[in-house]
Amino acid sequence: MGKKDVGVSQEQLTRQICEIGCRMYDKGFVAGNDGNISCRLDEGRYLCTPADVSKGFMEPADIAVVDDEGNQLTGRLEPTSEVPLHLRIYHELPRINAVAHAHPPHATAFAVAGISPPVGVMPEAEIYLGPIPLADYGTPGGPELADTILPHLRNKAGTILLANHGAVACGKDLMQAYWRLERLEMYCRILILSKQLGSVRPLPEAKVRQLLQYKKKRYGMDEDDPRMD
Ligand SMILES: [Zn+2]
After folding, report:
1. C-alpha of residue 184 to centroid of ligand 1, in Å
2. What is the DSSP letter of 202?
3. Is 0.85 surpassed by the pTM of this model?
4. Are 74 and 10 in contact (CB under 8 A)?
5. Tens digits of per-residue pLDDT, 10-46?
6. d(CA 84, CA 194)
7. Is 37 helix (H, G, I), strand (E, B) or coil?
């Protein structure tokens, strides 16, 4: 199992999920009861958001604990129908300890248009996001959704667009997963605005190489970018 939030209690992680849900809702990343968030708790136990509840109005008692088979252990509400997707990610990829799924509008616009955002345009996107693959369409709540996402995660992606649907961000902890979602939306929004103004001008190749070196040496994030291979 990967290194999860060491020393962070179940109560703190539960509260963090509620806070991230609020931010996702306030920023317009989710409408109605859309979206789901989860994290590893300890060996064979996971926290996840409930079904049919706005992510902006969750209380700690709504957050469920599920086991490796997806059985609900605690929580007053039924967990999200995407539990099987989250569990498959945790089972296959020990480096991942948190997963957040939402429909941020500008990122989702790329996913609906069938366009993977370009790399080599902005420093923060290079360092914190890297290449953002576009996964094939899979029906939400079904096993095929995991099949479309997992190949990209195995290839080191941390942020993935889901064709005609939305985005999934993963991380070593909850904040990394959430920040990736936030950065993805900001990046996609800037790309769309730049295109409206004229064009998206790429960074010079040498500058991108410099950023990748920085990413590896300063942040040790070579695990998170297939271009490091
Ligand atoms: Zn969705």
Report:
1. 16
2. P
3. yes
4. no
5. 999 999 999 999 999 999 999 999 999 999 999 899 9
6. 38
7. strand
